[in-house]
Amino acid sequence: MLKHPKPIVKADEKAHMLDKSILDFYYSEADDIFGAVMRDCNLCFWEGADNYSYEKRIKSPLKNFQFRIWRVEKTKTWITSDKTNSLYSWDLLLGKPTQLKQAHEGKILQFLEVPSHNMILISSLDKRLVIWDIDTLEPKCQMPVKNSIHSICYSAQLDVTFFYCRTCSVPATLRT
Predict the structure, then answer these.
(1) Is residue 16 in some structural domain?
(2) Residues 102/113, Cβ–Cβ less than 8 Å
(3) How far is CA 41 from the centre of its chain?
(4) 88 and 143: one domain?
(5) Which of 100, 117, 137 corresponds to the end of one domain?
(6) Domain assignment present for 15
(7) Are 138 and 118 in contact (CB under 8 A)?
(8) pLDDT the model gives residue 172
(9) pLDDT digits (tens, 9 = 90+) for 7-51
(10) Per residue in 66-98, pLDDT tens?
(11) Where a domain ends, among 100, 131, 153?
(12) Is pLDDT at 3 greater than 70 in this prediction?
């Protein structure tokens, strides 16, 4: 029988009195940091350097709460998205977001960093795959697809991006 694992990261109950629910989280293996978006409109971060015991909180000044979070490892930038499908990059020292150019009309489904090609691939329910420049965080191009892409992965060994749509019988590939 599996034992319930001891949590590595725990939200500070006193700091999140109304709601301590984590909506989404991302673990940066490169810097050993957990980042999370909370239902109470906070972004929270825990670092392995202090054994994940200190919770750094940033109260979001944005109108809509953020419900997805990712990390661009190459530039050490945290990215979030909200219900309007807007993307934001965060300055953690100042606790300030910068809204990125609006490129998605439907719910954002997948976010994939491909540092060897200096790009980020983002798919959404609007049946588009948007390729973003990793350094400028600007959309470079859009690819319309027949169906929404629900899963993306990149193979550096094959230099191929694989993606999967719910209506696909096998994963499709894109030579990068």
Answers:
(1) no
(2) no
(3) 16
(4) no
(5) 100
(6) no
(7) no
(8) 56
(9) 567 677 777 666 778 899 999 999 999 999 988 888 999 999 988
(10) 989 999 999 999 999 999 999 999 998 899 999
(11) 100
(12) no
More confident residue, 171 or 22: 22
Average pLDDT value over all residues in the chain: 85
- CA distances, 61 to each of 7, 34, 38, 103, 149 (Å): 29, 21, 13, 22, 31
Q: How far apart are CA 97 and CA 89, in angstroms?
A: 6
Which of the pair, 145 or 78, is modelled with greater confidence? 78
Domain residue limits at 26: 1-8+21-100
Query: Nearest-CA neighbor of 147 among 162, 163, 132, 167?
Result: 167
- CATH number of the domain at 165, please: 2.40.10.360
Q: Are 98 and 104 in contact (CB under 8 A)?
A: no
Burial 133-168 (b: 16+ CB within 10 A, else e): ebeebebeeeeebeebbeebebeeeeeebebbbeee
Q: Does one domain contain both 94 and 108?
A: no
Are 149 and 80 in a shared domain?
no
Cβ atoms of 66 and 82 closer than 8 Å: yes
Q: Alpha-carbon Rg of the chain, whole angstroms?
A: 17
Q: What pLDDT was estimated at residue 162?
A: 75
